[in-house]
Amino acid sequence: MADVSSATHEFDLVLLGGGTGGYVAAIRATQLGLKVAVVEELILGGTCLHRGCIPTKAFLKSADVYDQVKSAAEFGVNVKGDIEFDYDGALKRSLKVVEGQYKGLLYLFDKKYKIPVFIGRGELIDDHTVGVTPKDGSAPFSLRGKYIIINTGSRPRPIDGVPYDGKQVINSDHAVVLDKLPKSFIIRGGGATGVEWASVYHRYGTPTTLVGNVVPMEDKEVSDQLARSFQRQKLPVIQGARPTADDIELGKNGVKMRVKDAKGKESVVEGETLLVAIGRQGNIEDIGLEKLGIETKGSYIPVNDMQQTKVPHIYAIGDVNGKQLLAHTAMHHGLIAVEHIMGLNPFPLNEEMNSPSCTYCEPEIGSVGLSEQEATKRGYNVKVGKFPMKPNAKAVIEGHPDGFAKIVADADTKDLLGLHIIGPHSTEMIAEGGVARLLESTPEELAIAVHPHPTISEVIGEAAHDWLGHAIHI
Amino acid sequence: MADVSSATHEFDLVLLGGGTGGYVAAIRATQLGLKVAVVEELILGGTCLHRGCIPTKAFLKSADVYDQVKSAAEFGVNVKGDIEFDYDGALKRSLKVVEGQYKGLLYLFDKKYKIPVFIGRGELIDDHTVGVTPKDGSAPFSLRGKYIIINTGSRPRPIDGVPYDGKQVINSDHAVVLDKLPKSFIIRGGGATGVEWASVYHRYGTPTTLVGNVVPMEDKEVSDQLARSFQRQKLPVIQGARPTADDIELGKNGVKMRVKDAKGKESVVEGETLLVAIGRQGNIEDIGLEKLGIETKGSYIPVNDMQQTKVPHIYAIGDVNGKQLLAHTAMHHGLIAVEHIMGLNPFPLNEEMNSPSCTYCEPEIGSVGLSEQEATKRGYNVKVGKFPMKPNAKAVIEGHPDGFAKIVADADTKDLLGLHIIGPHSTEMIAEGGVARLLESTPEELAIAVHPHPTISEVIGEAAHDWLGHAIHI
């Protein structure tokens, strides 16, 4: 890290928070000639790198490998002997991946761009000053910035009355460093985080029960497909349940949770450990917002298209502005804020319509824009096109011919409103949807565009043909 | 198959050839209300389904699984015992995949669209008549069509003076049904087919030498990257060699080939079997072209944008028109020809600029449009943007952080001219390039488009940022 004591404390831009959006903003600002400092409470890289996206996907990859090894004979690869899942090995690899990415980030900050990072608690003192209480106990100091970007991120929300203890009741922050697997899990919450961890632990062989609606923000056909897939994988899911603290009993031998499923059937689920993934909340406390009259809404800081708060030279990017709690969205916020500071007239991001969501459970989900249900609710004359993975040769070859691609578009204007994919490589394939949405594409254009053969991406082309009324391979 | 004898022999459209382009054209024409017949010499589905794309990718998948099982411990999956590659298992799976796809196609023809398929040798008798000599030896007959589409495909070209015997000297047609692995291979030809089979056999553990320039049609940096990767994998490649029949000795114990590499160094390579993959040639012989004055060029039938030959109601689609010998190109030709017949004014396909190529060796390659070298040769003011896989978190997580994405664009007009990707999932990710090219995108648009995190597709966004002068994560 850069030497603080000798550094002047006057900057063009001070980043309050060195998570994904913050570090991207810091790098871009430095490229553009600004003098930048970052204040970060925990560690440069934030949730995504250290406690979120990256380690989770490493754990998921280990589950994929385990599945692949178990089914190897089907592909002509014979394993003569037992196959053992080594959780410690998976954990170590995850930590190693994170460490490697972290080192890359440190290289960019320390060597390439020479951006000072102050590890400590930051707080807005006035509209140009961030006070820093260093983590190492040294004396507090202040950083002055012509511009300030708030990027304090978010944290897992607890169930009211059931605080996290990091052992019996954990969240994703704890899961990524869990040093050994409990005997069994209850996972409360079926959003992306919940289904990913359920997909990890279930496939690791640990009895796991998922309590909550499965990816409720996705298109209903996608949620239904994932629920069916979990059922086939024998991963127990209790949809519709919304247990409160009253339904949860933390005992010596584990957790008991009273649940009522969507059909009203009551039961008690048990697990050694309860992983809670019911959502996140913005980190807005004790950072001096009130002092400056920067308003909050719920746990988030409202901003405009350029990510400006009500104080025009103070921006808020990433999770804490509450627009869309995704790392790539934070990155784009960072770029937009900095380019706006520089007067570069950046293109605004339409998070809801143009920024894809990815869920990396088995099977994967990638989606962008509106679901059929949401589009209908908003009054569009909705028309959908759909094509399953089953007839797709490459999906069959890869051994995962489950899922589909679905196109939601306006029947009147032909505007593509949403693309939803569940099945192999969905998280990679959805990038096409991001480009198609940005360029205001139509289903006809996606049908004319060449999707190479044999690839799974052909299902997108076929879904577009289906939208036009004439898929070929079904 | 439909009953021939009772069928009238008058059709709206006769397809001469039931390969990929032909079957797609037949289905689309039937959807549009045409009465269609297909004449196919061998088997419905053609090269791609039975002897090309599909079985090859199944064999490649088995190699991927073998690699993954061998490296499983790195991901926390311990295999206690020997790992054996079972070629017979891989072959059986490939045949099963092909059989499944073939059954799907038969369902479409026999049950859903009820399109008669005549298995036999077809030949143009006059400009509305295809004569058929049935394969089963029954009496020849004729089919009349208001329109005719020629889709006779292509076949592997032999080395002059070294005919295929299917045992010692084979091509990809033979490889897909090879009932046991020879002790060693020479593979002559480094195009997509050659490198794919080299990647299969080398990873199966069979000593294999590749003789020829590695993917010479790809961007030079892609070819160089693949050559380096093969070197790291210890797959011997002799680039620059162009052996003729004089250099090849077919002996009792195998094949000897005298080769001279790019640096002029001479050596002799040996193998039990020689797999030749030096290119393909169109099937234009004895199908009556001369009679109708339909000209040929080399071994191909020139056509216009709507796939019409010089006889306007006779079209030629797919490999035999020589525009681009790829299955997805053939499919689009089929759609265009049929929609043109119906007066639907189809959007023409710019094969060279808008139809991606995929190579499924390890590492994969996906590309669309012009290479840097080709764009320069054509006088564009070429500017490139590039981003490596190495810093990409998802590529690291998947254990394959080799390769890069490269954007070729016109510095003056900002037009995207080409996208080239080598590395994991390239063949899926290139679909984005197809859409971006069709929609006449610019690098700036690809940078603004959201590539979700963590995905490998981020390298495309970063390559676009690099083109603009400011990649972030490097």
Structural class of chain A: alpha/beta
The share of residues in helices of chain A is: 25-40%
Arithmetic mean pLDDT of chain A: 96
| Largest contact between chains | A-B, 96 and 96 residues
Major sheet characteristics of chain A: 5 strands, mixed, barrel
Distance between the termini of chain A: 58 Å
Query: Counting H and I runs of at least 4 residues, what is the number of helices of chain A?
Result: 14
Oligomeric organization of the protein chains: homodimer
Give an overview of the whole structure.
The structure is a homodimer of 474-residue chains. Chain A has 474 residues and is α/β, with parallel strands linked by helices. The first copy, chain A, has three domains: 10-51 and 92-155 and 281-351, FAD/NAD(P)-binding domain, CATH 3.50.50.60; 169-278, 3-Layer(bba) Sandwich (FAD/NAD(P)-binding domain), CATH 3.50.50; 363-468, Enolase-like, domain 1. Chain A has 14 helices and 22 strands. The first copy, chain A, has helices at residues 20-31, 46-51, 53-70, 87-112, 172-175, 192-204, 220-232, 327-341, 351-354, 372-377, 393-397, 426-438, 443-448, 458-468, and strands at residues 10-16, 36-40, 77-85, 117-126, 129-134, 141-150, 154-156, 169-170, 185-188, 208-211, 237-238, 248-251, 254-260, 266-271, 273-276, 280-282, 314-316, 357-359, 365-369, 382-388, 404-410, 416-422. In chain A, the strands form five sheets. In chain A, strands 1-2-4-5-6 form a five-stranded mixed β-barrel. In chain A, helix 1 packs parallel to helix 8 (327-341), helix 3 runs antiparallel to helix 4 (87-112) and helix 3 packs parallel to helix 6. The longest helix of chain A has 26 residues, at 87-112. At the A-B interface, helix 1, helix 3, strand 3, helix 4 and helix 8 of A face helix 1, helix 3, strand 3, helix 4 and helix 8 of B.
